[in-house]
Automatic annotation (TrEMBL):
Coiled-coil stretches: none
Family statement: Belongs to the flavodoxin family.
Function: Low-potential electron donor to a number of redox enzymes.
PANTHER family hit by this protein: FLAVODOXIN 1 (PTHR42809:SF1), FLAVODOXIN 2 (PTHR42809)
Keyword Electron transport: yes
Protein name (database record): Flavodoxin/nitric oxide synthase
Keyword terms, alphabetized: Electron transport, Flavoprotein, FMN, Transport
Stored InterPro entries: Flavodoxin (IPR050619), Flavodoxin/NO_synth (IPR008254), Flavoprotein-like_sf (IPR029039)
Amino acid sequence: MALTNCNRRPVILCYSQTGNTAALAEQIRELAGHPDPAVHLNPHPDDIKTVMNGATSLMIGTYSWGDGQIPERFLPVLEAVITHMKQDVPVGVFGTGDRFYPSFCGAVDELSARLSEHVDVLATLKIELMPQAGDTNAIRSFLHQLHTGTDPITDNDS
Ligand SMILES: Cc1cc2nc3c(=O)[nH]c(=O)nc-3n(C[C@H](O)[C@H](O)[C@H](O)COP(=O)(O)O)c2cc1C
């Protein structure tokens, strides 16, 4: 697939094995509005430099594995992202997991911690398994936090 590098638009990078996190990435894209984010599912590390070129924001997501960990195969992608991302690009981290496991969506926390060593992570989103219609508000909140750096619920409280 040819990768364009001249478009300025949000970028969604997502790692998914059985489709739940890919479905979440697609719902985020649908709710993100204009300009339409580019979604890259299970990207190759060698493509990250091109993918990140022109990114106005980054939403990066994964499922959780092991004991709430980032899947091993996603780590080279993460390293490439850290190498190529610009400091001033807003970053949000999302993921799916299963509450059956003690560390629900632990990979979201790990990913957020790893990225926070290099950039500000403005928003996180954890969804159980396949996203449902009831998850729409959480996704909208995630997008709001990413774009404004504020939590809409906290704002209403003040
Ligand atoms: C062996 C195994 C370990 C898992 N460990 C966790 C975990 O520690 N925490 C969690 O929240 N979910 C865990 N999960 C659940 C997956 O993260 C969850 O099913 C996720 O939605 C899969 O995403 P995908 O469909 O995008 O691959 C585990 C699943 C498997 C099969």
